[in-house]
Design brief:
Layout: H1 43-53, H2 65-70, H3 77-93, H4 101-113, H5 124-143, E1 150-154, E2 164-167, H6 177-187, H7 189-198, H8 206-221, H9 250-277, H10 279-292, E3 294-296, H11 297-304, H12 322-331
Antiparallel strand pairs: 1-2, 1-3
Helix pairs in contact: 1-3, 3-4, 5-6, 5-7, 5-10, 6-8, 6-9, 7-9, 8-9, 8-12
GO molecular function: ATP binding; ATP hydrolysis activity; ATP-dependent peptidase activity; metal ion binding; metalloendopeptidase activity
Protein name: ATP-dependent zinc metalloprotease FtsH
Cofactor: Zn(2+)
């Protein structure tokens, strides 16, 4: 940095989450001229971070660090520290002398989904609708090749949600068109299940609609994955937002809206077709969910059989998808 002598041994460090909005003059040679990008830890790095934070905690002998690392994709070091602390608190509340695998799973559920609200007043009709909604997600994702299959589904309210689903994602570096479309179809499976079962829909799919709208818009305007718009992107990596003008004409804006709507509607109808063809299994899954409140991968296998697609890695919780992060960063 300017103003320091050449022999004072002073090193100036700085950190930011938004390097894209910094003044370029700040980053030129002689100032902050060395830049290190720190990514979220991968599975091996998460294992090492767990190893550090578990040292002061008495754990069960059978605890598998590889399993814990697979359970936490997208978690930062601070998130992992929080999981360890929360797991220790949960074990202490249960009067345990050591923290077990189940305590860590409960900690992940609590951190990702929020506190359980079993006392929340929900009518029998609403509870049934929630069960079929979550069963719709599970059914569609289980039957699609590129969708992340659900490993655990619950209708116990957590945080702001009335139901929750845990996934088995792949930590992808690139995402292909068919993968995005399958994820969108699975996200729309909840609303499609309501329509197939009850002949009407509800407001319960708000977060699903928000997600698929962002994904469809990203396909059309950012990643160049739409035939009508072509190999163009309106993404600005400099971080300069289009506050008053758009980088395309009004006619193109209308075409973008039409293509986004077309993509979403196509995947919605696809989800309806899948659920209609598997309505009996969908109903069995929903009734099982109503009975138990929480179901797991093994319950889905009992109803649908072994999943035809996917890999053999351990179940993980789906958080902070790389695609979703990129879309959110673009729209923020």
């Amino acid at each position: 940095m300017d103003g320091f002598g050449t022999n004072t041994n002073v090193i100036v460090l700085a950190a930011t989450n938004r390097a894209d909005v910094l003044d370029k003059a700040l980053m030129r040679a002689g100032r902050f001229d060395r830049q290190i990008y720190v990514e979220l830890p991968n599975i091996n790095e998460r294992k090492e971070i767990f190893n550090v934070h578990l040292r002061p905690i008495k754990t069960a002998e059978a605890l598998d660090l590889d399993f814990l690392a697979k359970q936490t994709p997208g978690f930062s070091g601070a998130d992992i520290a929080n999981v360890c602390n929360e797991a220790a608190l949960i074990a202490a509340r249960k009067g345990k002398k050591a923290v077990s695998k189940e305590d860590f799973m409960d900690a992940v559920d609590r951190i990702v989904g929020g506190l359980e609200k079993k006392t929340k007043i929900i009518t029998p009709e609403e509870r049934k609708a929630i069960a079929f909604h979550e069963a719709g997600h599970a059914t569609v994702s289980w039957l699609l090749e590129h969708a992340a299959p659900l490993v655990k589904v619950t209708i116990v309210p957590r945080g702001q949600s009335l139901g929750a689903a845990w996934y088995l994602p792949e930590e992808r570096q690139i995402v292909r068109t068919e993968q995005i479309l399958d994820e969108m179809c699975a996200a729309l499976g909840g609303r499609a299940s309501e329509e197939v079962t009850f002949g009407k829909i509800s407001t319960g799919a708000l977060s699903d609609l928000e997600k698929v709208t962002k994904q469809a818009r990203a396909m059309v305007t950012i990643y160049g994955l739409n035939d009508k718009i072509g190999n163009l992107t309106y993404y600005d990596s400099s971080g300069q937002e289009y506050n008053f003008t758009k980088p395309y004409s009004e006619q193109t804006a209308q075409l973008i809206d039409q293509e986004i709507s077309k993509i979403i509607e196509t995947q919605y109808q696809r989800a309806i077709q899948i659920l209609t063809e598997n309505k009996e299994k969908l109903t069995r899954l929903a009734h099982l969910l109503l009975e138990r409140e929480v179901i797991f991968k093994e319950d889905l296998e009992d109803i649908f059989g072994k999943r035809q697609y996917g890999n053999d890695i351990e179940p993980t919780v789906k958080v902070n998808e790389s695609l979703q992060q990129q879309v959110d960063a673009t729209e923020s």
